[in-house]
Amino acid sequence: MVTIARKVFVATRLPKNTGVSAWVAMLPPRHGNGRLQGHVTADIVIIGGGFAGLSAARRLNALDPGLKVAVLEAGVIGEAAAGRNSGFIIDLPHEVSSEDYGGDTITKNREAIDISRSAIALARSVAEEQRWGRDIFDPCGRYSVAISDEGDRHLIKYAQGLGSLGEEHRLLDQGEITSITGVETYTSGLFMPGTVMVQPAAYIRGLADSLHAPVSVYENSPAIRIEGQVTGWTVSTPQGSIDTGRIILANNGHAENFGFFESRLLHIFTWASMTKEFPPSLLAGDRKWAATPALPMGTTVRRIPGERGDRVLVRSRYTYHANIEPGSGTLRRAGAKHDEKYRARFPSLAGVPMEYRWGGAMALTWNSVPAFGEIENGIFAACGCNGVGATKATANGIAAADVMLGQKTRLTEIFSRFDAPKPLPMQPFRTIGAKANLAFKEWKAGAE
Ligand SMILES: Cc1cc2nc3c(=O)[nH]c(=O)nc-3n(C[C@H](O)[C@H](O)[C@H](O)COP(=O)(O)OP(=O)(O)OC[C@H]3O[C@@H](n4cnc5c(N)ncnc54)[C@H](O)[C@@H]3O)c2cc1C
User: Fold this and answer.
1) pTM, whole model, 2 decimals?
2) Res 95: pLDDT
3) Which helix (H) or strand (E) holds 241?
4) Scanning 11, 291, 339, 368, which has the fewest C-beta atoms within 10 Å of its C-beta?
């Protein structure tokens, strides 16, 4: 028998959110779940209430409704990265770290699509069960948009890749994409119907609230210590503790704060701004659309209709922060970049300023694999979202639950073939390399 008594993992740092996410600000204040207080027991403790953690909880409950599962979320559900992203649940390969969206082998792409569609199936099941409207969960598809000759060429090449995979898509010329976006900035577009658009904070809140006894979600309850006992683990929070047999670590890059995956997770932040509401007549085109850039490091844009007017979201910039804590200067600089991109794209909205600006953390691995699997006796990891966590982290969570309960599925088959995350270069070379790489890729993305 493996001895886990005496093993102790202590969190050296807890997550902090940077800036005010519009998605949270647009919802009523959350009256969520209380903190963990006192001493309780659970069959499984999940650390982290984002896409990975909540999806794992839902899957565990579906597989074994009798399991007592406790989810510990450090902050308020929906306020960390999973609730403050751009809301694209993307079904097709799309890597922030990849050079080429369509350049992988057909088999790898097929696997990536299967991973994403497993995640979308989970999201859809929650949406149907909770009877969400299209303001929360909208299977409307997405556009990829180009702004340069290189972007145009990229879309054509990517469309060819989709053709060879048998995936539905439609190339749009400048006139067609202009009639949708209402702006003349884009030179071409590609429509892909499989993406689901969500209001991310509402989605994550709703996913958490769909969980019921014997699953409990504790908010404002950061796990600060994991201690091995003779028969399992004790997870402590500032005001309570849980004795458990097994743990799913679903806190993405913050796994490293416990000493797991040291020097294997690259802490990249990305940034978004959202405008004030404006009268819909100020911007021609459809009132609702969502577009990712033709080149991987470009700018994502989304138009969101509302009863009191519409808003535009701009997501751009990637920054590296070894300690998972960017300063306020990074938010300011990202905001200035967003304003530049926004002015260039939406001249008719010149008088409409940004109202909210925020950023959030992602954890990438050098070889783009998840930080996944049993890392200590009874501790399973579902971390390393690799940028597109709405799908990848959701799938990490589902797969962790499946592996833990011995299920054999298409997901576990794919996940069993992933390599371990590769060690990153030592510091200071890691920081220098990450910053240089991001700067080069942003320069390459140019106006896109
Ligand atoms: C501005 C922005 C736009 C983005 N747009 C998209 C997009 O459109 N589509 C997409 O797929 N991805 C997008 N992403 C990335 C996506 O948000 C992440 O990949 C995703 O949130 C990762 O999910 P996760 O569950 O692994 O981690 P997280 O969402 O980070 O969840 C981890 C949770 O663990 C909690 N935690 C950490 N430490 C502890 C602890 N000690 N105890 C308890 N809880 C702890 C955190 O508070 C957090 O809630 C975007 C990100 C940002 C910031």
Assistant:
1) 0.95
2) 45
3) strand 240-249
4) 339
